[in-house]
User: What shape does this take?
Amino acid sequence: MRRMVAYDAAVFGSGACGLTAAVTLAEGGARVAVFEKQPAIGGTSVNFRGTFAAESEMQRRKCISYSRDEAFRNIMEYSHWLANPRLVRAIVEEARKTIPWLQARGVVFTDVVTNIPGAPQTYHLIADSGEDVVKALSARAVEKGVTIRTSTPVKEILMKSGGIEGLIVEENGEEVRVDARVVHVASGGYANNAEWIKKYTGLDL
Assistant: This one.
Protein backbone atom coordinates (compact mmCIF):
# COMPACT_ATOMS: atom_id res chain seq x y z
CA MET A 1 0.00 0.00 0.00
CA ARG A 2 1.32 3.46 -0.93
CA ARG A 3 2.37 5.55 2.07
CA MET A 4 0.36 8.73 2.59
CA VAL A 5 1.11 12.06 4.28
CA ALA A 6 -1.02 15.18 4.52
CA TYR A 7 -0.32 18.92 4.61
CA ASP A 8 -2.33 22.06 4.08
CA ALA A 9 -0.01 23.05 1.22
CA ALA A 10 2.72 21.43 -0.86
CA VAL A 11 5.42 23.28 -2.78
CA PHE A 12 7.68 21.70 -5.34
CA GLY A 13 10.91 23.45 -6.11
CA SER A 14 13.09 24.99 -3.40
CA GLY A 15 14.53 28.04 -5.12
CA ALA A 16 13.69 31.60 -4.10
CA CYS A 17 10.16 31.28 -5.49
CA GLY A 18 9.33 28.01 -3.75
CA LEU A 19 10.85 29.01 -0.42
CA THR A 20 9.06 32.37 -0.52
CA ALA A 21 5.77 30.57 -1.08
CA ALA A 22 6.50 28.12 1.74
CA VAL A 23 7.42 30.87 4.19
CA THR A 24 4.35 32.93 3.29
CA LEU A 25 2.02 29.98 3.68
CA ALA A 26 3.61 28.89 6.96
CA GLU A 27 3.49 32.39 8.38
CA GLY A 28 -0.22 32.33 7.60
CA GLY A 29 -0.64 29.23 9.74
CA ALA A 30 -0.55 26.48 7.10
CA ARG A 31 1.23 23.14 7.50
CA VAL A 32 3.62 23.15 4.54
CA ALA A 33 5.99 20.73 2.83
CA VAL A 34 8.60 21.57 0.19
CA PHE A 35 9.75 18.88 -2.24
CA GLU A 36 13.04 19.25 -4.15
CA LYS A 37 14.33 16.71 -6.66
CA GLN A 38 17.98 17.73 -6.24
CA PRO A 39 20.11 16.68 -3.24
CA ALA A 40 20.38 20.31 -2.11
CA ILE A 41 17.92 23.18 -1.97
CA GLY A 42 18.15 26.43 -3.92
CA GLY A 43 18.42 25.45 -7.56
CA THR A 44 19.70 28.25 -9.79
CA SER A 45 18.60 30.80 -7.19
CA VAL A 46 21.95 30.35 -5.44
CA ASN A 47 23.61 32.23 -8.32
CA PHE A 48 21.64 35.46 -8.69
CA ARG A 49 23.08 38.73 -7.33
CA GLY A 50 20.11 41.04 -7.02
CA THR A 51 16.51 41.77 -7.83
CA PHE A 52 14.39 44.41 -9.56
CA ALA A 53 12.24 47.01 -7.84
CA ALA A 54 10.96 50.50 -8.61
CA GLU A 55 10.14 53.09 -5.93
CA SER A 56 11.79 51.13 -3.13
CA GLU A 57 12.95 52.73 0.11
CA MET A 58 16.57 52.06 -0.88
CA GLN A 59 16.03 54.01 -4.10
CA ARG A 60 14.35 56.86 -2.25
CA ARG A 61 17.36 57.20 0.04
CA LYS A 62 19.62 57.50 -3.01
CA CYS A 63 17.27 60.04 -4.65
CA ILE A 64 16.53 57.65 -7.53
CA SER A 65 13.23 58.92 -8.93
CA TYR A 66 12.44 56.13 -11.42
CA SER A 67 8.74 55.37 -10.96
CA ARG A 68 6.61 52.26 -11.22
CA ASP A 69 4.73 53.81 -14.13
CA GLU A 70 8.00 54.40 -15.97
CA ALA A 71 9.09 50.84 -15.26
CA PHE A 72 5.81 49.46 -16.56
CA ARG A 73 6.00 51.52 -19.74
CA ASN A 74 9.65 50.65 -20.40
CA ILE A 75 9.06 46.92 -19.93
CA MET A 76 6.05 46.98 -22.23
CA GLU A 77 7.91 48.98 -24.87
CA TYR A 78 10.87 46.61 -24.68
CA SER A 79 8.48 43.73 -25.47
CA HIS A 80 6.81 45.77 -28.25
CA TRP A 81 3.66 45.61 -26.11
CA LEU A 82 3.47 41.84 -26.60
CA ALA A 83 3.90 41.08 -22.89
CA ASN A 84 0.82 40.54 -20.75
CA PRO A 85 0.19 44.05 -19.36
CA ARG A 86 -1.70 42.85 -16.30
CA LEU A 87 1.12 40.50 -15.37
CA VAL A 88 3.78 43.15 -15.98
CA ARG A 89 1.84 45.66 -13.87
CA ALA A 90 1.47 43.12 -11.06
CA ILE A 91 5.20 42.36 -11.09
CA VAL A 92 6.13 46.06 -11.05
CA GLU A 93 3.67 46.87 -8.26
CA GLU A 94 4.69 43.95 -6.05
CA ALA A 95 8.45 44.13 -6.64
CA ARG A 96 9.06 47.08 -4.34
CA LYS A 97 7.35 45.19 -1.48
CA THR A 98 9.75 42.29 -2.00
CA ILE A 99 12.79 44.19 -0.72
CA PRO A 100 11.51 44.97 2.80
CA TRP A 101 9.86 41.54 2.98
CA LEU A 102 13.21 39.85 2.37
CA GLN A 103 15.04 42.24 4.68
CA ALA A 104 12.63 41.40 7.49
CA ARG A 105 13.58 37.75 7.02
CA GLY A 106 17.32 38.24 7.18
CA VAL A 107 18.40 39.10 3.64
CA VAL A 108 20.93 41.94 3.42
CA PHE A 109 20.92 44.32 0.44
CA THR A 110 23.92 46.61 -0.08
CA ASP A 111 23.16 48.95 -2.99
CA VAL A 112 20.91 49.86 -5.91
CA VAL A 113 22.68 49.83 -9.28
CA THR A 114 22.05 49.32 -12.97
CA ASN A 115 22.68 45.86 -14.39
CA ILE A 116 22.41 46.99 -18.02
CA PRO A 117 24.47 49.90 -19.42
CA GLY A 118 22.31 53.01 -19.63
CA ALA A 119 19.36 51.46 -17.81
CA PRO A 120 17.70 52.93 -14.68
CA GLN A 121 19.03 51.99 -11.24
CA THR A 122 16.57 49.27 -10.29
CA TYR A 123 18.87 46.34 -9.44
CA HIS A 124 18.98 45.79 -5.67
CA LEU A 125 22.25 44.03 -4.87
CA ILE A 126 22.38 41.23 -2.31
CA ALA A 127 25.33 41.35 0.09
CA ASP A 128 26.84 38.16 -1.35
CA SER A 129 24.73 35.99 -3.64
CA GLY A 130 21.41 34.25 -4.00
CA GLU A 131 22.73 31.54 -1.72
CA ASP A 132 22.27 33.98 1.16
CA VAL A 133 18.62 34.41 0.17
CA VAL A 134 18.14 30.64 0.06
CA LYS A 135 19.76 30.26 3.50
CA ALA A 136 17.67 33.02 5.05
CA LEU A 137 14.38 31.77 3.61
CA SER A 138 15.04 28.12 4.40
CA ALA A 139 15.96 29.04 7.98
CA ARG A 140 12.74 30.99 8.32
CA ALA A 141 10.78 28.12 6.77
CA VAL A 142 12.20 25.59 9.23
CA GLU A 143 11.55 28.03 12.08
CA LYS A 144 7.88 28.13 11.04
CA GLY A 145 7.65 24.34 10.90
CA VAL A 146 7.97 23.75 7.15
CA THR A 147 9.02 20.23 6.15
CA ILE A 148 11.74 20.25 3.45
CA ARG A 149 12.42 17.06 1.52
CA THR A 150 15.40 16.93 -0.87
CA SER A 151 16.06 14.16 -3.42
CA THR A 152 12.27 13.86 -3.60
CA PRO A 153 10.97 14.56 -7.11
CA VAL A 154 7.31 15.19 -7.77
CA LYS A 155 5.95 12.58 -10.18
CA GLU A 156 2.31 13.63 -10.52
CA ILE A 157 -0.18 16.32 -9.52
CA LEU A 158 -3.39 14.73 -8.28
CA MET A 159 -6.66 16.17 -9.55
CA LYS A 160 -10.23 15.48 -8.46
CA SER A 161 -13.37 17.04 -9.95
CA GLY A 162 -11.26 19.67 -11.67
CA GLY A 163 -9.44 20.67 -8.48
CA ILE A 164 -6.08 19.94 -6.86
CA GLU A 165 -5.96 17.32 -4.14
CA GLY A 166 -2.25 16.64 -3.80
CA LEU A 167 0.88 15.09 -5.27
CA ILE A 168 2.70 11.84 -5.84
CA VAL A 169 6.38 12.14 -4.90
CA GLU A 170 9.22 9.66 -4.98
CA GLU A 171 11.21 9.36 -1.76
CA ASN A 172 13.99 6.79 -1.39
CA GLY A 173 12.61 4.87 -4.35
CA GLU A 174 9.12 4.71 -2.85
CA GLU A 175 6.07 6.52 -4.19
CA VAL A 176 4.34 8.59 -1.52
CA ARG A 177 0.95 10.23 -1.79
CA VAL A 178 0.88 13.78 -0.44
CA ASP A 179 -2.61 15.11 0.27
CA ALA A 180 -2.72 18.92 0.07
CA ARG A 181 -5.43 21.48 -0.60
CA VAL A 182 -2.89 23.84 -2.18
CA VAL A 183 -0.05 22.97 -4.56
CA HIS A 184 2.46 25.65 -5.53
CA VAL A 185 4.55 24.86 -8.63
CA ALA A 186 8.00 26.46 -8.37
CA SER A 187 10.09 24.00 -10.35
CA GLY A 188 11.82 26.52 -12.60
CA GLY A 189 11.69 27.14 -16.31
CA TYR A 190 12.10 24.91 -19.33
CA ALA A 191 15.71 25.60 -20.32
CA ASN A 192 16.50 21.86 -20.29
CA ASN A 193 13.37 20.84 -22.19
CA ALA A 194 14.34 20.60 -25.86
CA GLU A 195 10.74 20.02 -26.96
CA TRP A 196 9.45 23.17 -25.24
CA ILE A 197 12.41 25.24 -26.42
CA LYS A 198 11.51 24.26 -29.97
CA LYS A 199 7.80 24.87 -29.42
CA TYR A 200 8.05 28.30 -27.81
CA THR A 201 11.19 29.76 -29.42
CA GLY A 202 11.65 27.82 -32.63
CA LEU A 203 15.23 27.03 -31.65
CA ASP A 204 16.93 23.64 -31.54
CA LEU A 205 19.06 22.77 -28.51
Remarks:
- The chain is about 35% helix and 30% strand.
- The longest strand covers residues 174-185.
